[in-house]
UniProtKB/TrEMBL annotation:
This is Uncharacterized protein. It comes from marine sediment metagenome. PANTHER family: ARABINOSE-BINDING PROTEIN-RELATED (PTHR43649), DIACETYLCHITOBIOSE BINDING PROTEIN DASA (PTHR43649:SF12). It holds the Pfam family SBP_bac_1.
Length: 336
């Protein structure tokens, strides 16, 4: 079976999934990227694997940055590397310059509640040391309203309040050069290159709140086995076979996806050079701690409510969060 990696805990809670680590040798498991093993694990058990992964970038328009006089951080080779990511304050300062230069909101964030917020916006919260839920996957009071989480949410709110990010999604804003920065999926690279060949885009690291807490989106559809199989060893071996190195090579060649096995990274042609290498660096070298919860879908929904509420200025961040906590607690009460 296949499942989105973020829902692994929900399937485990429903006692659907086979613990793969009971049937696969450790060397097989260790061949996968740590991010993949972590995403497919709940507690001490591994339940799902994949031969590839994704890491969403932040796109920026090179021409608009140059015209606005933005000084792009670069290493000795001219690359905007992960260790040169902007802090929240640096992001705000430069976004204000872009806003004044463009005369419109320079940042496109897709604030409408579509499920995108947990994937694309949660790393901003995680990079500030914030979180969503306790270790049991159910407690949100003290986590979703922690000082670190609220500080990161208020940073996002300031983008809307100051006219830096549009309060509603604008179709094709980045491609049409109506936005200079856009939080989009990596699949947009092929679209931009094919449909907008003159668009001078590049990639920048996700902004961070606290030093050493860099985070970035990751995750995709994973392969798992069902617990009620009559042949658990063969099922686990099949999961490993479907997600093996040959599969990883094929998925990179045919779909442009990041190889999910450690030994393939050095030989990856697509991700050996910047700006694409930044996505690989984000996947391998940043923290990924999306909530592992049997009610992940509820957490995903309330984060969408919070971001949409901030964008539309329906209430304070603190009140939006308290409303979200009440909603989550109603759902988590089923597990008492």
């Amino acid at each position: 079976m296949t499942l989105e990696s973020v829902y692994t805990a929900s399937y485990v809670d429903a006692e659907v999934l086979l613990p793969l680590n009971e049937y696969l040798d450790q060397s097989t498991i260790d061949s996968y990227l740590d991010a993949i093993v972590m995403a497919g694990s709940v507690g001490d058990n591994l339940y799902a694997l994949q031969s590839f992964d994704l890491s969403a970038p932040v796109f920026y328009n090179v021409d608009i940055f140059e015209a606005a006089g933005i000084d792009v951080p670069a290493d000795e080779n001219g690359n905007w590397t992960l260790d040169l990511a902007w802090s929240f304050d640096e992001f705000l300062d430069n976004a204000r310059i872009l806003r004044d230069h463009m005369g419109e909101e320079p940042v496109h964030m897709y604030p409408d509640n579509t499920g995108w917020q947990m994937y694309a916006h949660s790393p901003i919260i995680l990079s500030n040391g914030g979180t969503f839920v306790g270790e049991n996957g159910l407690d949100v009071d003290g986590y979703l309203n922690s000082p670190e989480t609220l500080e990161a949410l208020n940073f996002i709110k300031s983008l809307f309040k100051e006219g830096i990010a549009a309060s509603t999604a604008k179709e094709n804003a980045f491609a049409l050069e109506k936005a200079a920065i856009s939080f989009e999926g990596p699949w947009m690279i092929g679209y931009f290159d094919a449909e907008y060949p003159d668009l001078n885009w590049s990639l920048m690291p996700y902004p961070y709140g606290k030093e050493g807490h860099n985070s970035a989106p990751h995750g995709s559809w994973y392969v798992a086995g069902t617990k009620n199989t009559e042949h658990p060893e063969l099922t686990a071996e099949l999961v490993a076979h479907l997600t093996n190195k040959d599969s990883a090579i094929t998925m990179e060649e045919e779909a442009g996806l990041i190889p999910g096995h450690k030994e393939l990274l050095a030989s990856s042609e697509l991700y050996s050079d910047y700006p694409r290498k930044l996505m690989l660096d984000q996947l391998v070298n940043t923290a990924h701690v999306k909530p592992k919860s049997p009610i992940f879908i509820v957490l995903e929904d309330v984060l969408g409510d919070i971001v949409e509420g901030m964008a539309l200025d329906t209430d304070t961040v603190e009140n939006l969060v308290e409303t979200a906590i009440t909603k989550v607690q109603r759902e988590s009460a089923r597990f008492d």
